[in-house]
Write a structure and sequence with these properties.
By secondary structure, the chain is mainly α. The chain contains 17 helices and 13 strands.
């Protein structure tokens, strides 16, 4: 046997079944020859491996918590349980700390724990769900539904909304101000960085970059080039620094109105409560005081439940009326394709060909990211509409060649 050599008092004892299972997995992985597999088999086994990864991640977190409780990690060179787990796992101490905290939180969240142990949640998803449920236990079911239908970015955004609604706004604002930073480090010819600051100020920065980013995107598209949005945003930042007037000139050509998503009850009350939101779409939660300040300047687009009934707005041209634009942006804050978290450079798409339908209505419009819009608009992919409002894409009726080796 490889690294694991144990003599069990009883082979039927399930306590150490995990060790035998891992040894079996080791042999299976060593025997893999991906190049000889048919594409469909490779895809199926990828899903199997992903499920195994989720299950082993759950086992590792729960077992590490027990190791911490019993102080069994002591005796080696590690100065803390986080360092011990990081060295054992080959991960960062931050990731190790998150796993330990998640294992502790799920003890009081039976449904989250069950899904974690069944392999339906990854340890990363469980971390986000449990973090939100820790401040608002009533949000657990909603966060679990979000984990099922959204990617990690969507789940993270929902968790942030839950935490923001259940947190004292003034204290959170002071902490955001206190923790603001811009850090950089160099790795070879590239310099990396992170920054953090109050959400409303970050929104100002992104708003300043938005017209230049879109201009850079349009230039690249005309030239037939495709790069990630983050690359165009970096180019926009460089342009803003080197040519300060360029941002002003571009912004003048683009009428910009701030949009804040806020529940009417929270706006009237002056603060959010669990279940309510006040946020800048695509950026994150902000204090209700910020929404009131922007509203006082007359620069706010606000969508509330007693406003325009967007379902009754119909146009007989391709033009999308302003109330409908706002409603679609509010409903489809990310690409509508299941699992896609892209929330920038979204394209409004008619599910029914306008040439045939001759109408523009709420139910037949949806936002798609650039990649998925290209698949639908240029590659012939079909939209499959689900009851929960999300979409899947079906490839054109042509079978791809199987490249499995003989």
């Amino acid at each position: 046997m490889g690294m694991i050599e144990h003599t069990f008092e009883s082979e039927s004892d399930s306590t150490f079944e995990l060790e035998r299972a891992v040894e079996a997995v080791r042999h299976a992985v060593r025997a893999l020859e991906p190049a000889r597999l048919a594409g469909a088999d490779a895809a199926r086994l990828t899903a199997v491996a992903a499920e195994g990864e989720r299950l082993l991640g759950a086992a590792k977190a729960l077992l590490a918590r027990r190791t911490d409780e019993t102080r069994a990690w002591r005796g080696g060179r590690a100065a803390s349980v986080e360092q011990w787990l990081a060295e054992t796992s080959g991960c960062s101490e931050g990731a190790a700390r998150e796993a330990l905290v998640t294992a502790e939180r799920v003890e009081t969240l039976p449904e989250t724990r069950d899904r974690l142990l069944d392999g339906r949640l990854s340890i990363g998803q469980a971390a986000l769900v449990s973090a939100g449920a820790a401040v608002d236990p009533g949000a657990e079911a909603h966060l679990l539904r979000t984990a099922t239908r959204s990617g990690m970015r969507g789940l993270r955004q929902e968790k942030e909304r839950v935490v923001a609604a259940a947190t004292d706004e003034e204290a959170a604002a002071r902490r955001a101000r206190r923790e603001r930073h811009l850090r950089t480090w160099t790795n070879g010819p590239a310099t990396h960085g992170t920054f953090s600051g109050p959400t409303e100020q970050v929104a100002d920065l992104l708003d300043a970059l938005e017209p230049l980013t879109r201009a850079r995107f349009d230039e690249a598209r005309r030239a037939g080039h495709k790069e990630p949005l983050e690359a165009y945003r970096f180019d926009a930042l460089c342009t803003l620094v080197r040519q300060p007037g360029a941002g002003v000139a571009t912004a003048r050509r683009t009428k910009h109105i701030a949009r804040v998503r806020v529940d009417l009850t929270a706006l009237v009350r002056g603060r959010t409560e669990p279940g309510e939101v006040c946020e800048i779409p695509g950026v994150g939660p902000v204090p209700v005081a910020h929404a009131r300040e922007v509203l006082s300047h007359g620069l706010l687009q606000l969508v509330i439940t007693d406003g325009v009934d967007v379902r009754t707005v119909v146009s007989t041209t391709r033009h999308v009326p302003p109330p409908l634009k706002i409603a679609i942006a509010e409903r489809d804050r990310t690409c509508k394709v299941r699992g896609c978290d892209c929330d920038r450079m979204l394209h409004r798409h008619h599910t029914e060909d306008f040439v045939r339908s001759q109408r523009t209505v709420y139910a037949e419009l949806g936002n798609l990211c650039t990649r998925h819009h290209h698949l639908v608009h240029d590659e012939g992919y079909r939209i499959i509409d689900h009851h929960d409002g999300t979409w899947d894409l079906a490839a054109p009726d042509r079978a791809p060649p199987d490249t499995a080796a003989a």
